[in-house]
Specification:
It contains 13 helices and no strands. By secondary structure, the chain is mostly helical. It has 2 domains: 184 residues, no CATH class; 126 residues, no CATH class.
Length: 321
């Protein structure tokens, strides 16, 4: 392991130990998240071996982690000033938007990296603007407000771990395909074309799902109504599926680069995270509590991977737009 990478990895080992020590007992299901970069770094050292290109990729991935760490620390300080930890949701997209450009400029601005820069800028840029427009004017999200209330006097410092470093861990694992593509960009080829097509499919689902939901909320007559048409009739979470497909697009583009196939492992983790690990499951629990027709909707429409919905039976009496 290069010296810089070793120092970064060692610093994270120390920070993860503090995190685990401060974590309320008994530990919950996600107690292992602080250890994820520790394990990922160790696995990368074993996989990459003595390869010079492998050492370079590892060093750039570690530096990307430091960059995210610093950015999230700034966002945490802003959250204390604003008393609004949910600005993390807004910062999420902007950090992903800026990271490839920061790394590209740091490594000499190789023009071969333009395919990845174009699609990542379109994807993360659209997402960032949408989340800013949707979230920022409305104050702290109720989920974060409940955590703030339960955290009491310790919340100001514990939020750094529970929200900001936790998101940092997730992002650090996710960005491997971006780092691989920027660190060793290759001439335009079949992997770039295939990756762009998969990315485009994801972009249609994510952006289209967000647009349909925004239009539906503007026109509905009460908050219990349920959107089950358009892309929302193919999957209950077109935005999550779309974001996942876009990450697969980035990972396929990265395959063109040396050791870029490691990005496929990141994409597989993102798929688990979106489908089973956190995003979909949290939203499902919320929807089941707030939408009277959600059980019937679940019987007809898959949770994540799209397919044509089953016909609505006469006994299904859900409230729809």
């Amino acid at each position: 392991m290069p010296t810089t990478s070793l120092w970064i990895w060692s610093a994270w080992v120390l920070l993860s130990a503090v995190w685990l020590w401060a974590m309320p007992r008994p530990w919950g299901p996600g107690w292992w998240y602080p250890l994820l970069p520790v394990g990922a770094g160790a696995v990368l050292v074993l996989v990459l071996g003595e390869s010079a290109l492998g050492d370079s990729l590892l060093a750039h991935w570690m530096l990307a982690g430091v960059w995210l760490w610093g950015g999230l620390t700034v966002v945490w300080v802003l959250s204390l000033i604003r008393r609004d930890a949910s600005i993390m949701d807004v910062a999420f997209g902007y950090l992903l938007l800026a990271l490839p450009w920061w790394l590209w400029l740091r490594l000499g601005a190789n023009p071969l990296a333009w395919p990845l820069l174009v699609i990542s800028t379109l994807g993360f840029g659209r997402y960032s603007l949408y989340i800013t427009w949707r979230n920022l004017p409305h104050g702290e999200d109720p989920r974060y407000a409940r955590w703030r209330e339960r955290g009491g006097a310790r919340w100001w410092w514990w939020s750094y771990f529970q929200i900001f470093l936790l998101q940092g861990v997730v992002l650090w694992v996710w960005v491997m395909p971006l780092v691989a593509s920027i660190a060793s960009p290759q001439p335009l080829g079949i992997w770039h074309v295939l990756g762009a097509l998969v990315w485009l499919l994801g972009f249609v689902f994510e952006a289209g799902g967000d647009w349909q939901l925004t239009r539906f909320k503007r026109n509905r007559t009460n908050s219990s109504q349920l959107l089950d048409s358009g892309l929302w009739g193919l999957t209950r979470h077109p935005n999550y599926f779309g974001q996942t497909a876009m990450w697969w697009g980035y990972a396929i583009v990265a395959v063109a680069s040396p050791w870029g196939w490691l990005g496929l492992a990141s994409a597989a983790y993102i798929t688990w995270f979106m489908y089973r690990g956190s995003a979909t499951s949290l939203m499902e629990r919320h929807m089941q509590k707030t939408k009277p027709g959600y059980a019937a909707y679940c019987a007809r429409v898959p949770a994540f991977f799209p397919r044509w919905p089953r016909p609505r039976s006469a006994s299904q009496n859900e409230i729809t737009p």
